[in-house]
Amino acid sequence: MKWFDENLYRSLGTGYTQRFEVTRVVCREKTDYQELMIFETPSFGRVLALDGIIQTTEKDEFAYHEMLAHVPLFAHGTPARVLIVGGGDGGILREVLRHRTVEKATLVEIDRTVVERCRKHLPSLNVGAFEDPRTELVIADGIEYVAQSDETFDVIIIDSTDPMGPGEGLFGETFYAGCKRRLGGGGVLAAQNGVPFFQADELVRTRRRLMPIFADVAFYATAVPTYVGGLMALAFATDDARLRRLSEAVIGERFAAARFGTRYYTPAVHIAAFTLPRFLEELQKQEC
Known about the structure:
This protein folds into two domains: 3-57, Spermidine synthase, tetramerisation domain (Spermidine Synthase, Chain: A, domain 2, Roll), CATH 2.30.140; 61-283, Rossmann fold. The chain is 30% helix and 28% strand. The protein has helices spanning 61-76, 91-96, 112-121, 123-126, 142-148, 173-182, 200-210, 248-258, 267-272, 278-283; strands at 3-5, 19-21, 24-30, 35-41, 45-50, 53-57, 81-86, 104-109, 135-139, 153-159, 183-192, 216-223, 231-238. The termini are far apart.
């Protein structure tokens, strides 16, 4: 195999298909839920694809994982119990465990094979996070887990695939309502929400589904080069509107106290990420 062509936007024409040169296929198999492939490239290192769609690369994963994890965690301030739904590659788990306040991180992933292959073939993403004693790995459907669990969490992070296949239900109102029940007072939910330049309806639907459940719903942005279409939108929902409006000074104090380095996230970027381009502001005013 010489080239990998992503198929996410093929309906828009060949101009929107990104291509990776493949120097080696590390593994390729059909799991119980999806087709999994990890391959090596000259420019992006190892790449994880599920059902033909790029999930993460060694080169730019930090831009996604740092922003999806640290914005809700530093907004909360003292997260002790964190739930991650999806995220079988371990990148979000790695970032969550960098917070010394975290006593337990529960990762719920439906596809055991994703976890096993990423632990073996993408160790730079999880860096031993699955072996951390604070980690609880649950192989289960995330929708069923939040519906049946009686645990509460300070922060819930939804690191799902696109709303198709195994990830489709993780964008539904029933699932979001289940997450709300699992959040303690002052809790925060954060979720990946696609690239709105191509997936605008996704943002509109998510906002409509979150608004009746949480008092404060907003979106913030990060830029991940291998997610075609420019900025990626991340959802932020809480009942405490003050958490989204904390000053850079407050976030800066929390970041300094955490005493770890980052490659994308900074307190200034945290604050600025909620300032969106006009077309995204307009999207948030739309109704489905």
